[in-house]
Specification:
By secondary structure, this protein is α/β, with parallel strands linked by helices. A hairpin with a 6-residue loop joins strand 3 and strand 4. Helices cover 45% and strands 18% of the residues. It has helices spanning 13-25, 38-44, 68-73, 95-99, 119-125, 172-188, 199-220, 224-230, 234-251, 260-269, 279-286, 292-306, 311-328; strands at 5-9, 29-33, 46-49, 56-59, 63-65, 80-83, 108-112, 131-136, 139-146, 149-155, 160-164, 193-195. Catalyzes the NADPH-dependent reduction of ketopantoate into pantoic acid. It catalyses: (R)-pantoate + NADP(+) = 2-dehydropantoate + NADPH + H(+).
Amino acid sequence: MSKENVLLFGLGGIGGVYACILQLSGRVNVHVVARSNYHSVKNNGFRLKSPLFGDHEDVRFAGVWKTCEDAAKAGVVFSYVLCANKALLDAKPSLSDNIGPVISDDTSIVLLQNGVGAEAPLHEAFPQNTIISAVVWTGGRMLPEEGGKAGAEQFNSEGLTIGVDYRDGSDKAEERDRLDKLVEWFKAGKGSPVVTEDIQSERWIKVIWNCCWNSITSVARLRTNPFFESSPFALPLCRTLMEEVQSVARAKGLTIPEGTVDRLLKQCTDVGGLGLPSSMMADNLAGRPMEVEVILGTPVKEAQRLGVSVPTLLTLYTLVKALDYGNAHPEVKVDGK
């Protein structure tokens, strides 16, 4: 029996790690859309550095494409499209626009992204397709090119909590079968996915984490430990912010266990050295678009819809949104003169 085809859209740090996990499984033909590093991956392959999955200097994918349109023109039918690109809800073209050419009636769409609220536009654009959503706790980053070869590094732990964001009126058993097949492929590649029937609660637990550390590090332009040391009010501010987001999630009827905020704070404060950076801080410092809406904007909008008071969250959202605006309009930024 011929292997099924899987497409990974967004070959960054996380995308590179999970493309390699699937490739190492030997179960599927892995194709990738590599927009910024297309030529190096196409011509020279890809490398993975990992204490869990080993170091691989010459990973070769079944197909390397610059765009989804190019992949579609090749006539390949994809069973799954995994989206590991930056989650920008207000981007034009949208994620649905980008992946549309490779979505057939039998394609399952998998989100390997931060934040909350990204499933809704996909359900609207592809109402008959299964949407699988994952919370990624894996440490991953892009490696600098060596010898013209791009790569990714997996560090710390590998963690993936994954579940179906079920369609209204869908055959849940059929959608669960699609999830189970993907999970088996990840396991065959030595990944450790954990399946949940309540993926939205898990996504909101992760956004309690992201809302705090991403916004704080971006605004302060500091890693977490220097921020904690900056004043006696720093850590209490973080707790307040997390508790506000937790309140929104619970108002939505989601399951956020007691002690979640304490656990998430401890996970950060136990980190030595300079503490944690964040992808949002890196994007801000580099002048790139930030994942403001999926990490901060959706919780703010849900708070307003549900009548939950979130003054700290609203303040951070407004400030990070202003930073994002300044990056998009560099002509209005103060240049230090």
